[in-house]
Amino acid sequence: MNRRQCLAALGAAAAAPLAAAQEASALERIRRRGRLLAGIYHDMPPFHVQGEGIDVDIARSLAARLGVELTPLPFHAGENMDDDLRNMVWRGHYLGWGPADVLLHVPVERALMIANPRVQVVAPYYRERVAIAWRREALGPVLESLSALRGRPVAVAGQSLAGWLLIGADGGALRETLSTRWRDGVAAAAALRDADAVAAGGLVSELESVLHGDDRFAIAPLPAPRAPAGGWAVGCAVRKDADDLALALQQAMQSLQASGELAASFERRGVRWRG
């Protein structure tokens, strides 16, 4: 290496730390842009339907806490959660859209984070669980076991966790009167409300959003051995290296919880907030 090459190499080495220091962090880029790009699932009532829902409200509140506007990026779920994290958090979709700054409604699960080392999941804001709703007049105030549903019309979305659990319940004893044609738990709850069924399975948020305030119906955790005990938390996913954004979102969510704004976002949709 001659003298000129040596000086050039030394100059590049000296400039590298300076360039790294000058590179904007994730949070700085958002504030310079003036907008938070938030990935929000399409067609997930009551969290998002046609631009409205709990997740839209929460994303807007988080953006406000960061001092920026919200730009929602609605998208259809992929084959699995790994696809969604790749498309919406760390790489972007091959069709050219994404990634977002943050993806909402991500399960806060250690196994998921281990399987996706390019992301971190922070700021949990709700605890979901699979549930059953029923007409009190037909089945009484308490549903101790699913055997009480035998021979009764039950509505559930077939392609859902509640559907899978009910189809296999009691060795398949409920299948004969189980209607699985419903789009989601909201539609199943509407069937119960409209007297097309005596019970409906779904997520507790789905069932409550339709049946809240109606004393004719009861809602409780699905009494099935394979139902996740205690449910699962959902939070926000960001890139693994976006530590300042992760911290800011965590603090913003804690502020929303402390002020009561988080619970109010759920209550406006008829859902009881569960932390």
Number of discrete domains: 2
Structural class: alpha/beta
**Sequence of strands across the biggest β-sheet:** 2-1-3-10-4
Largest sheet: 5 strands, mixed
Low-confidence region ranges: 13-21
Range of strand content: 15-25%
In the CATH classification, which architecture of the largest domain applies? Answer: 3-Layer(aba) Sandwich
Put simply, the count of helices is 11
CATH topology of the largest domain: D-Maltodextrin-Binding Protein, domain 2
Name given to the CATH homologous superfamily of the largest domain? Periplasmic binding protein-like II
The helix fraction, in percent, is: 40-55%
Give the overall pLDDT as a whole number. 92
**Whole-angstrom Rg:** 23 Å
Order of helices and strands: HHEHEHEHEEHEHEHEHEEHH
CATH C-level name of the largest domain:
Alpha Beta
Distance between the termini: 63 Å
Number of strands: 10
Shape: elongated
